[in-house]
Amino acid sequence: MVAVALPYLLRSHGITVEHIASIGALVQAPSIWYLLWAPVVDVRFRRRTWVMALAVASAVCAALAIGRNTAAIGSLTAFLVASSVFNQPISSALGGLVASVVPDDQRGRTGGWSQAGIVGGGVIAGGLAVWLADNASPAITALVVGVLIAAPAFAVLAIDEPSSPRTELRSHLASMRRSITTMLKQREVWLGLVFFLSPIGAGALMNLFSAVAIDFHASSNMVVLVVALAGIVMPLGALVGGSICDRFDRWRVYPVAGILAALSACAMLFAPPSPLTYVAGAAGYAFTIGICYAAFMSLAFQLVGSASAASGTRFTLFMAAVNVPVVYMLRLDGIGHQRWGVRGMLAVDAMSNGLFGILFLVIVWIMRSRYARRSTSARWAG
Length: 382
Fold this sequence. Notes:
CATH superfamily: MFS general substrate transporter like domains
Structural class: mainly alpha
Order of helices and strands: HHHHHHHHHHHHHH
CATH class: Mainly Alpha
Number of helices: 14
Shape: globular
Low-confidence stretches: none
CATH topology: Growth Hormone, Chain: A
Mean pLDDT: 83
CATH architecture: Up-down Bundle
Strand content: under 5%
Distance between the termini: 58 Å
């Protein structure tokens, strides 16, 4: 919703593009730094309670921001940043909730559905907010946006989350520390962090397609069409990817998803720069990125493991890591366009996804081969 509606709503408030860019950067910043306050979701209450409370707080702040007048840029920015601060730990609470109630063999589909909901719901809510900005008063727009943010969170009431045993706060914090320390001693966790910090599945081109429409001779209507298609095919890709992750080794699915994203970018790279290439290529890339997102969520849920005192904080580590490549890949793709045009941008993105996908497939193959040899040796020794 931030990417779709926020710039339009701010511009409708009479705010300049320069200010919109600055506000957007501030609103996105908590997605990297929320690791500092996300552990709160592992304290005191059930995770589903935190999901609802944080969603309501985020909704109230967003509504107060959207309903303000054009002269209050400072307070508008403060409310939007506060909304993001409350919103980011929701994913941490959901990660802890999954660890509590979802068996590992169903976490692939859980990851797929969660990503489908995030992407699809964000596009729908953003589109509705844009329509309301042109057809309703600021008060009505603020109210509807607030409801759109808060209402879906109450679906967690349908989840039968087990109650956490009541413990003294100091003892609970010590248990959280031990849980995180234990996790960080696992080799697979560090390998997962390396995977998540890599360019695989960053999806940076999704943020740049509207800027390069002119390179493909595409009209503004086609840009709108690409946005609409992305809102459909990316959730579809997430659902497909989630189902695949429950059937195959998630360690292999993750790099394969990156290779698929590379192939989709390559298809655009070598095709004629036409409007058809623009629409079809962007749709194909969005579908593969949906698979990548589901592969990340599935593998992250797997690495979080069973329920613990710090399940939400564990999940936050992976979420913070996977946000990093989005930032640097945007920069690298931009440099590729600056130096070699749109084909350079596509080539940089394709090479980043493809090379790391192949590298990680080799690493997983080596690790699995060593494990198989050790298991065979142990059986013979027995």
